[in-house]
Amino acid sequence: MTVPVSTTSPVRDVSAEIVVIGSGLAGLAAAETAAENNLDVLLVESDEVLGGTTRFSDGVFNAVDPKRQVRIRVEDSPEKHLEHVLRRGRARNHEPLARIFCYEAPSALAWLEHLGFTFRDEISQEPGAPYPRSHVPAEGRGEAYIRFFRERF
After folding, report:
1. In 8-45, which positions are buried (b, 16+ CB within 10 angstroms) versus exposed (e)?
2. Contact 126/135 with Cβ under 8 angstroms?
3. Can you say whether residue 84 is alpha, beta or left, with left for phi > 0 and alpha for psi between -120 and 50 degrees?
4. Which of 53, 77, 112, 118 maximizes the CB count within 10 A of its CB?
5. pLDDT tens by residue, 79-90
C-alpha cells in the first residue's frame, strides 16, 4: 500500500519498507514500482499537495519511440538521443546518467502506457531537437501524471 503524506501534517509512528521523498513524476514512479513489488511505501512531499515541479511542467516526455516514429519515417535511436543530449549540454552533462536516461526512456514510456497512462498519438519535435521524440499527455500537461498516479494510490 502507498500512503502519501505531506510534511506539513504531523505524522507519528508510521512504518514502511520504502520511503520515497518527493512526489514529482520520479517519486511517483518509484512509489508505484515499489508497490508493484508488494512493498509498503511511504511517499513524503514537502508541499501541501502532490506533484512537485512536475505539476507545473508542460508534461513532455522525451523518448525514442519506433512505434510512433516509423509512421513519420524517422529513424532514431537511444544513441542518437544521447548524442543530442550531450551536445545540448555543452559537455556539462554527467555522461553515465545521460546514457541511462536516453537508453531507459523508451522502456519507461512503455511502462507508463502499460499502466494505462495515455499520450497523444502524434509525437512532436521540440525546438533544437533533431528528431520528433516528444510525447505529450493525451489530457493535460504535467499535472496529468500526478492525477494518474493519485488515482492509482
Report:
1. eeeeeeeebebebebbbbebbbbbbebbeeeeebbbbb
2. no
3. alpha
4. 112
5. 999 999 999 999
Residue 69 makes CB contacts below 8 A (sequence gap 6+) with 75, 76, 123, 131, 132, 133
According to DSSP, residue 124 is labeled B
Other beta carbons within 10 Å of 120: 13
Residue 117 cell numbers, joined: 497512462
How far, in Å, CA of 126 to CA of 48, rounded? 32
pLDDT tens digits along 106-148: 999 999 999 999 999 999 999 889 999 999 999 999 999 999 9
Q: Residue 120 corresponds to which cell in the numbers above?
A: 497523444
